[in-house]
Amino acid sequence: MCSLEKRGNLFILTLITDQDVEHRLNPNLFTSIISALSKAKAQSTRGSALVTVSHGKFFSNGLDLAWVKAAGSNQEAQQRFDQLLHCLNQLVLAFISLPMPTIAAVNGHAAAAGVVLALSHDYVLMRRDRGVLYMSDLDLGIKIPEPFMALFRAKLSPGSTRRDLLLRGLKIKGEEAVKMGIVDAVHDGEEGVSEAAMKMADGLVKRNWDAQVYVEIRKGLYPELCGMLGLATEVIATPRL
């Protein structure tokens, strides 16, 4: 599950450590995160920002494939898998349409859909001393659906960065992820990456940007992705001069 805390204009979304310390994305966790984002959107004002943090070894270990395999039949398993992909699509949509800057504080491993979760944010900070980014889909024999490929095309540099993450299945540590342009910066320890994310968010909050203008510029940056998500752009007719 997750929790949402509001400190002034700063929202803190925390993936809560319970029995599932890997933060695998299942229907319950998807519902919890999307509900929290909806709440943050409803409570947002000019100059808001959101930071996503987690605790434990994993930022997110991807889709809950154990929940899929626990189905009673192959048909039900496929239905469960399709349900998770739909939920992941809705999660990306919720982040891309959130009217505020977003920062992922990746303090542990992020695998497959966990990488999608991280890259759905505007900024990604990573822990230097522990954790990798790993697209396990190729090793598992799972084709990456087109909306998430559009996210990778939008967020990752073409050429070797996309190839090594998606077609080599490399487990990429923090320093290398910075060099490849996947994450913005690395910091030492769980507290270090969380504190850096909060400091960045505080700076963004102080810019006091118009929420609707921010989200429309974001949508304009990723037209292919937004088209697949069904996100239409809106005209802003009240500029602040």
Automatic annotation (TrEMBL):
GO terms for molecular function: delta(3)-delta(2)-enoyl-CoA isomerase activity. It comes from the Eukaryota. Pathway: Lipid metabolism; fatty acid beta-oxidation. Its EC number is 5.3.3.8. Keywords: Fatty acid metabolism, Lipid metabolism. InterPro entries: ClpP/crotonase-like_dom_sf, Enoyl-CoA_hydra/iso. It catalyses: a (3E)-enoyl-CoA = a 4-saturated (2E)-enoyl-CoA; a (3Z)-enoyl-CoA = a 4-saturated (2E)-enoyl-CoA. One of its GO terms (biological process) is fatty acid beta-oxidation. Belongs to the enoyl-CoA hydratase/isomerase family. This is Delta(3)-Delta(2)-enoyl-CoA isomerase. It comes from Theobroma cacao (Cacao).
